[in-house]
Amino acid sequence: MAGTAASTVIAAVGIIVIARLLGPADYGLYTLAFVLPSLFAAIIDFGLSPALTRYGASLRAQQKYGKLASMIGSAVLLKLVAGAGAFLLVLGFSGQLATSVLQRQDMGQLLVLACISILFQGFYTLSYNAFVGLDRMEQGALVMVLRDTTRMTLSSVLVVVGFGTAGAILGQVAGLIIAGLLGVSLLLTHRQVFRKMPSEMELNEGRRADIEAMIGYGLPLYVGSLLTITLMQYHRIILAFFVSDAEIGNFSAAFNFGALVAIVATPVATALFPAFSKLDLETRKDDVKRMFKLSVRYVTLLIFPVAIAIATLSKDLTRAVYGASYADASTYLTLYMLTWLFLWGGAGLGNLLITNFFAGIGRSREALKVALVQLVVFLPAAPVMASLYRVPGSIVAVILSALVSTVFGLRLAVRKYEMQVDVVGLLRALAASLVSALPILPIVYYSPLPSLANALIGALIYLAAYLTVAPVFRAVKRADLQTLIPILGQIRILRPATRLIFAYETRVLNLVERETKSTAPSGNPT
User: Fold this and answer.
1) 282 close to 362: Cβ distance less than 8 angstroms
2) Listed residue (408, 411, 230, 254) closest to 333, CA to CA
3) Secondary structure of residue 45 in the 3-state scheme
4) pLDDT tens string 132-183
5) Do the domain assignments include residue 142?
6) One domain for residues 408 and 423
7) CB 496: neighbour CB atoms within 10 A?
8) Gap between the Cα atoms of 257 and 334, Å rounded
9) Is the pTM of this model over 0.85?
10) Is there a smaller number of Cβ atoms within 10 Å at the N or the C end of the chain?
11) Domain identity same for 127 and 45
């Protein structure tokens, strides 16, 4: 979480500078330039990244380091060959792709610059997923922070000195090059894994078996992830057909605020993948059920309040961050935050809990089913809604598809694998999050203060309200504190804040329980 938070803050500063300097129209072009490179980077993964997360956790638990070293080497080699091929393909057809797919015939040169990132994006994704499986979160965080620091610095400088949209793209590409090369270097020199190097003959003989095993496991996850990324890029391609560059720039500005939710949601959900991988569904089903139930509970306790607070403060947030020229971004942001109320469980843009649960227990085909459900809903809904209602209509299509896929995924987990979901607890968390927004409405509508001051004051008031309302609504219970205190207490940097928060939550719970006992009927005859 610390790595994700640092990375998000650094990336946010760079995005703010770029968005303000370029303006909505050029920022829209910058966004479109990476649509196809991101798609091709996903295509060449073949399921290798999630496979390394699972095999990194399972083989390491079995101490089969020679097999794990062979798999890592095979994955890097395949990614190198596929990445180079994809780069050459996009490079050769950049003009045609810009005209036919992006509907911008003058974007050919920008697309050429952006497609350099394909290979190195693949290296970064592969190494980061491997670090997660190897429980080397600090190395994953290092690579992530270095990527965003590099692209923030270079992109900002290149835009300021006059390179415009091309400079912003070059800075982004440079960050991925450095992060990708460093990630692979750290991975291939991992002491624990490569302390007993397999011989060249063993590597050659096992390479085909390694690739078959990784693709065999990762293929359903690969298809599901590819569908997820395809939906994201398909969304932008649809916008390219129906709306202006400025509207795309406003949407991208709103979309960036999702990183604030991802700070708390993504690290938790990502850690669940290797955690579930270490639990056998057949022999430790009760442990898996308890972990699933707690995971749903705690992820939603984190996501709901953050999403609703951002949606409520959207006008002041967008004006403070991007300036008055991004006038439509606040409307888009309010709508977009609603997707996070559903994407925590689905295979959509968040790709969080349900997908990691199925992947972790080795049921990758179920994760694919969830992604397919969203695809079936979103593919026809997006162009229809965008043609009728432009950007807001396309966001509504995302919300609808996310809701349907989330319900499907949860039903599958509950009915087929006997998992349990505390529905009442989820509704309590949602109610507490909504009620906590009421005290900041006067600030949103009537405060004469600058937007930045409104956003900061509103966020602090919302936090205080949520910490008070959550235990009153029993969204947070004493059992939750007993579970979370020893976990978060181990993290030194969070210890002072968590102690203060948990002490306050305990006091509120004591008051609630005392009030409940005093008003409860005694049961004695009158």
Assistant:
1) no
2) 254
3) coil
4) 777 777 787 888 888 888 888 888 888 888 888 888 888 889 988 998 888 8
5) yes
6) yes
7) 9
8) 10
9) no
10) C
11) yes
